[in-house]
Amino acid sequence: MLDVREIAKRIPHRYPFLLIDRIVEVDGDRIVGIKNVTANEDFFQGHFPDHPVMPGVLICEAMAQAAAILAYVSRGGGNGENIFLLTGLDKVKFKRPVEPGDQLRLEICCLKRRGSFWKMRGTATVDGKVAAQAELSAMEVPRE
Question: Cα–chain-centroid distance for residue 24?
Answer without folding.
Answer: 13
